[in-house]
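User: Can you recover a sequence for this backbone? Please restate the input before giving your answer.

Assistant: Of course. Working from this structure:
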């Protein structure tokens, strides 16, 4: 399975894995699965994290490596789904994560129920 972690799921996976549903936690921890973190997530945390109580870990690069999480860059082709994407969700960071998941054939792990309105593979985080 190929997973993309929503920003809040990344924080939980690193700092409070007990907050995750058993299925999500086991999928993230399973060695046979590929787990991606978009560069969108640290960007989102830097811009609005403190306001929402989500802090960017100072040693994020090391933590990603320790957890075997792959960093997913933003590529021009990731913007293709955005052209036809409805604005079910007002957060541009979340819409970009959805677009990346669609473009890369990834399952987005999230607790955000609004994302169910998009044609993307989702795994509930809680």
């Amino acid at each position: 399975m190929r997973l993309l972690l929503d920003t809040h799921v990344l924080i939980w996976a690193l700092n409070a894995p007990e907050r995750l549903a058993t299925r999500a936690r086991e999928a993230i921890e399973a060695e046979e699965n590929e787990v991606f973190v978009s560069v969108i997530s640290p960007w989102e945390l830097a811009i609005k994290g403190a306001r929402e109580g989500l802090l960017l870990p100072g040693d994020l690069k090391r933590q990603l490596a320790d957890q075997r999480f792959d960093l997913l860059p933003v590529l021009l082709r990731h913007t293709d789904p955005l052209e036809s994407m409805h604005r079910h969700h007002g957060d541009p960071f979340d819409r970009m994560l959805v677009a990346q998941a669609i473009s890369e054939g990834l399952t987005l792990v999230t607790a955000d129920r609004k994302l169910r309105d998009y044609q993307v593979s989702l795994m509930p985080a809680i």
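That completes the design. Strands lie at 2-5, 34-38, 69-72, 107-110, 122-124.
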